[in-house]
Amino acid sequence: MKISAIVTLKKDVLDPQGKVVQQALKGMGFDNVKEIRQGKYFEIDVDENDKKKAEKKAEEMCKKLLANLVIEDFKIIGSQ
Amino acid sequence: MKISAIVTLKKDVLDPQGKVVQQALKGMGFDNVKEIRQGKYFEIDVDENDKKKAEKKAEEMCKKLLANLVIEDFKIIGSQ
C-alpha cells in the first residue's frame, strides 16, 4: 500500500527556499503570487494491506525520521 | 487562494534520495518498507479568488519553473 505524506515547515519558520522560488516566478512575470512555501513529499510503499495500519506506520516514520518536529509539521494526505 | 502542488520524479528515474531514506528507515527497524520516493511540495498562495484560474496559474508555474518535465511529473493536489 502506498502512503503519501508531506512535510512542511511550521508557519512561523522562515522559508528562504520558497522565497527564492517566489522571486524567480516574479521575474518570469508571475506577479500575483503572494507567497510560496516549499516542503517535502514522500511516497512510502509499505508492505501492509490494512489502510489504517499502513497509515499508522507512515505516521511513525514521519515522527521518527522524515520530519523534524521542532520546525516541521507533517500530514498523511492519502493512500492507495 | 492557496494551491498545493507536488513534483515527483518520473517512475523510471532513479531516486537515490528516496533509497537512502528507505535504508535509514530499515536501520531503525522499519523493515516492511518496499520503496520510498521523495518529491517536492509547493504551497502557492495566488492572489486570485477563482479556483479554476488559480489552479491554471499554478499549473503554468509548475510547467515553467517548478518541475523539470524531462524527468519529473507534477500534480495539483488541492486548493483552499
Walk me through this protein's architecture.
The structure is a homodimer of 80-residue chains. By secondary structure, the first copy, chain A, is an alpha+beta fold. The first copy, chain A, has a single domain, classed as Phosphoribosylformylglycinamidine synthase subunit PurS (Mth169, Chain: A, 2-Layer Sandwich), CATH 3.30.1280.10. Chain A contains two helices and three strands. In chain A, strands 2-1-3 form a three-stranded antiparallel β-sheet. The model of chain A has no long low-confidence stretch (mean pLDDT 95). At the A-B interface, strand 1, helix 1, strand 2 and helix 2 of A face strand 1, helix 1, strand 2 and helix 2 of B.
Fill in the keyword field for this structure.
homodimer, 80 residues, alpha+beta, Mth169, Chain: A, 3-stranded antiparallel sheet
